[in-house]
Structure formats: C-alpha cells, structure tokens
Amino acid sequence: MKILFLFILVQFSILFAQNEKIVILETTNCNIEGSLLFPYKTNDIPVALIIAGSGPTDRDGNNSMMKNNSLKMLAYALEENGIASLRYDKRAIGKSIINNFDESKLIFDDYVNDVKSWIDFLNNDSSFNKIIAIGHSEGSLLGMIASQNTNVDKFISIAGAGESANLILRKQLAIQPKDFYETSLSYLDKLEKGETIESVDQNYYALFRPSIQSYLISWFKYNPQEEIAKLKIPILILQGTTDLQVKEEDANFLHKANPNSELIIIDGMNHVLKESEMDLQKNMQTYSNPELPLKDGLIESIVEFIKK
Q1: Which of the listed residues 28, 109, 136, 202 has the most CB atoms within 10 Å of its CB?
Q2: C-alpha dihedral sign at 271, 273, 274, 278
Q3: How far is Cα of residue 53 from the mean position of the Cα atoms in its chain?
Q4: Residue 1 above 70 pLDDT?
C-alpha cells in the first residue's frame, strides 16, 4: 500500500508540475519572464493576466523584504476553478533582468506596453476563449490602460487607486513636517508640469532623485478615473475594508467613473488580500506570512465574474 501511495503521489506531482510552464516575453532590452498556469483542461478556456503592484513586487506578490504569495495563491485558486493564468515579473524585477539597468531610462509607459505585449501573447494562443486582465494595486492602472485598445474581454481591479499618483502623494506628504512638506510640494509642482528638477536636496532623494523623475512625470499624467471610464468591457472592482494603502473611497471613485462596473467590498480584506484587522502591526504581519490563505469571498467573486 505504501508503494502504491508513493507512486500515485509521484504521478500527481509530475502532472501538477506540467500544468505550469515558464514563458518569456522578448522586448528590445529585456526578456520578461512569466508563469503560465493551466487547469487540467487546456483548450477553450479563459485566461487571466495577473498584473502585480508597485515597487519591486514580483509575479507572486512578493519582494525581498516581504513574502505573502498573494498573487501566486490567486493564480492557483483560479486554476482550481478551471481558469488559466499568466503572472510575470515586471521588467527589472525578479527574473526579468535588465543588464546594466539604468533607472533613468524607465518610464511608466514601459510597464503599460509590457502588459499590452502579454495580451498579444495570450491572443496568439488558441487555447484561450477569452482574456481577463486582473490588476492589483498599481497593476490596476496598468491593466485598465492596456485593456482599452486590445482584445481583452473583461477587466478586474483589485485594490486599485482611484486618484492619480501625484494627488495621492500630496495627501501622504501632508502629515510630514512643514518644511519637508513645502519643499516636496515645490518639487511636485515642477514634475506635474513635466519639468525635471536639476538639484534635489539629499533629504528628498528617496522620492525625487533625478533618476526616477522621468518615471514620475510619465506616471502622474494618468488619472485612474479617466482611464477606467474609457473601458467598454465588463469591469469588476474589488476592495477590502482593512486595506491600509488603498481605501474604499478609491473603489467608489472608480465605480462612479464607470457606472457600468460592478463593485464588491470585501469585509476584513487588506492590501495583500488576506484577512486582517485595521491594527497597523497586526495588518503588516500578514504581509510576511505566506501561510495565510486569501480572504474568503475574493476568489468566489472573481470566478463568478469571469464565468458569467
């Protein structure tokens, strides 16, 4: 019996491993690596393109400081429900390495174009009968822009900001000491006009260093409310009540901008899609706990929306 059980286990492990394969998107200066996960049925199925959030967040929803596996869990939950998925490391993140990477050459539109290229990649695969773009956090904005003039059938925003990045940054800076706040606003004023800042005080390098200014200028020009209003496809907006980074107000902004969208608020879900209280310390602990499951109601809402 033990030998038979071991044989079945090995066979299942081989079959499971075959369901996920590494795919590469070749661009002019970077090969972007992704994971394409199939359910056991591999033809005439929907596929979700999962787009990660801001910063050095990889395809699984992790970075070097925090591992929660939120996006990996999302992909495997979709697979259990008969939905394929593609998740990927953004350029210069994880295994999508750029040799001699120059931060000053990266702009927000590079990320948008990468999403569009992945959409083309999926459209060229006859296995899929429809494509759903799922953007988490900053990935929401990337997804809604890339879905406007491409063959995407549905769009899902999870914890997506409802205001442009410069307005959010202004609100966040308002709690800083007066001198820091006022100097930061003077920098923001120039960037919002598309002007770079030649001399930046070292105390402000984390936010406004010269090498990141082109990215900020390109990012600031996009208003999520304006972008989601351009979509003519079915839209699902998901937001948790214990999200420390994005609020219910943001989801309401997006929903109001496109009244044809469906809005679902998930009680007790935080920014990494786990169950949590609003307490800062307890909430942040979930960011580094890959053992915690995704919040109840998230997968059910996504699967129902995709399959309806």
Answers
A1: 136
A2: positive
A3: 4
A4: no
